[in-house]
Amino acid sequence: MSIAVVTDSTAYLTPEERTRYNIRMIPLSVNLEDGSYEEEVEITASEFYRKARGAKTFPKTTQPPVGKFVQLFEELSKDYDEVISIHLSSGISGTYQGAVQAGDMVEGIKVHAFDSEISCSPQGYYALKAAQMAQEGASAQEILDKLEEMKKSMDAYFIVDDLSHLQRGGRLSAAAALVGGLLQVKPILNFENKVIVPFEKIRTKKKALRRVEEILAKDAAKYDQLQATIIHANSESEAQEWMAQLSSAYPNVHFNISYFGPVIGTHLGEGALGLGWVKVD
Q1: Cβ(275)–Cβ(212) under 8 Å?
Q2: φ, ψ for residue 157 (rounded to 5)?
Q3: Which residues on adjacent β-strands are paired with residue 86?
Q4: How far is CA 189 from CA 160, 163, 201, in A?
Q5: What's the pLDDT band for 145 if we cut at 50, 70, 90?
Q6: Which UniProt keywords apply (predicted)?
Q7: What is the residue-averaged pLDDT of the chain?
Q8: How is residue 81 annotated by DSSP?
Q9: Quick one: DSSP state of residue 154?
Q10: In 10 A of CB 19, how many CB atoms?
Q11: How large is the angle between the packed helices 95-105 and 66-76, nearest 10 degrees?
Q12: How many CB atoms are closer than 10 A to CB 3?
């Protein structure tokens, strides 16, 4: 049985990764004052932050139309028997549900929609593992079982400069945003039960980074090897500095750098930093 792997743009896989592992990508869109753009296709992250910085109206994001999924799945049905379609958390977007609906509408191919319950690079970990296993001849069930196993060691934390982006985007309650603003804190956020929630409120970014490192250290001691990604919102130099510090402290953790693209950047705001990781077999 031939298996195709699909993910959405919020995994922020590089074009090289998508090509190497034959991963298809469905883009989400960001709506700015001068129009709507499909991220990773029509607008880059740096272009987005430049446009958003001077905008008078708050950007909005849009999930892919179900028709785009239908079109892709019908195209894949010509060469594949099954699809594993991996998407950002259903608690913050309807993208996963769109894949489910499209899978029910398309004949000739079996679609397995997978809710990553997270986003960004950790979501990309699932897509890369699924594609690697598909290339090695694993069955769809074997791949899905592996993805569920990965959830047990998957973790990610995000540090934002301003909670108002999440609040205005409807991803955080007004009360939580107000409290954060009054205290002038640098909140640490994570995914819990598929939604973004405040994990801890720290007074300075330096202390927040240190707190996230403490959490990483526990898993670095627990597992033989980890894959970890530092994720930044238009602050690559800060990400590089943090990676250099962490790499020297945790030799059993394999670090790389990714970014918050337009859709996730809309909700976290410029200057946000994240760290996600998973156990390596």
Answers
A1: yes
A2: -135, 145
A3: 7, 114
A4: 8, 10, 9
A5: very high
A6: Lipid-binding
A7: 92
A8: S
A9: -
A10: 10
A11: 50
A12: 23
Domains in the chain, start-ordered, CATH in brackets? Answer: 3-28+63-151 (3.40.50.10170), 155-279 (3.30.1180.10)
For 156-184, the pLDDT digits (tens) are 999 987 665 555 545 454 445 444 454 56
Sequence-separated (6 or more) residues with CB below 8 Å from residue 247: 253, 255
What are the tens digits of pLDDT across the range 57-100? 889 999 999 999 999 999 999 999 999 999 999 999 999 999 99
Pair of tokens at residue 240: 């590089």
pLDDT at residue 163, rounded to an integer: 62
Share of the chain above pLDDT 90, in %: 81
- The answer to whether the beta carbons of residues 229 and 275 sit under 8 Å apart is yes
Strand order in 226-232's β-sheet? 195-202, 186-192, 155-159, 273-279, 226-232, 253-259
Question: DSSP code of 171?
Answer: S
Q: Using the Cα atoms of residue 142, residue 256, residue 91 and residue 110 in order, give the sign of their dihedral.
A: negative
Q: Is 261 exposed, middle or buried (0-12, 13-18, 19+ CB in 10 A)?
A: buried
Identify the pLDDT of residue 168: 56
Lookup result for tokens 């700015």:
32
What average pLDDT score do residues 128-144 get? Answer: 98
Which residues lie closer than 8 Å to 219 by C-beta, 6 or more apart?
153, 155, 226, 277, 279
Cβ-contact 265, 48 below 8 angstroms: yes
Residue matched to tokens 């705001």: 269
| φ, ψ at 199 (rounded to 5°) | -90, -50
| 243 Cβ contact list (under 8 Å, min separation 6) | 230, 255, 256, 257
Nearest to 98 by CA among 65, 53, 73: 65
